[in-house]
Amino acid sequence: MSEEQIRLGGMALRNGLLIHGPTHWAAAVRTSDGEIEVASQPKPVLAPRLATRLPLLRGPIRLAEAMAVVPIVRRRLRSARLPFEDPRVIAAIAATLGISSLLRRRAPASALREGVLQAIGVIPALVALREGDLAAYHGVEHKAIGAYEQGSDDPAAVPKEHHRCGSNLIAPMMALSAGGTILLERIVEDPGPVARAGVGLGGAGIAVEMFAWSDRHRETALARAFHAPGHEIQRLIATREPTPEQLQVGIAALAEILRVEQDGGGEQVATSH
Fold it and tell me: What is the pTM of this model?
């Protein structure tokens, strides 16, 4: 990225794309009648700016701020369909929570138990990605943002995998969560939800710091090893090549986020094409 470019992130929707900028979000979706609807708004701020600069704390705060945008997008852009907005995904989440709770009560703390729990935890995401549009719009996210970063006018020519995708956090967060939980249960006889949440928060913070370091040192062997699992997850499961019509939605979302970030934006804008 050049110094003039802004740093962008995104989230695939079932029928479109949400893009995060430094101060705003923008989303574009394809409606049931084939039109493209666009909306944007300033992002919520959940913590003082100083807190977002503190190692281990800044990662979870940024993740929380990104998730706080999701219900706002759904409210402002009624045509948007969220990744988990599907009865099958909701059922998978409920089943995963139930099985995980049962395993934690019945099985002793061990690497095997935690490995099984981490594997079970990804089932809802796999169920969501079985519906091809979500994986395709994940590809749209990477292509639109990648084209912007590369100064290209042709998102179709950009790879559907991106080095800054959140999939790069999956493997380290799973490993850190499993290791932290095993250690916690060997130190504390019956850890409560607060202690378990603290382990999860700590693991997320460390994983995000690893993610940031690997992004700054992408040419090193250690950074390439860090990105390898996430790249394969994207290549094999999490992304698909989008259609030209789906790319049009991504281009609309990108144009809107650049407009509001450069112009200072407004409270909310919604248009149809």
Answer: 0.86
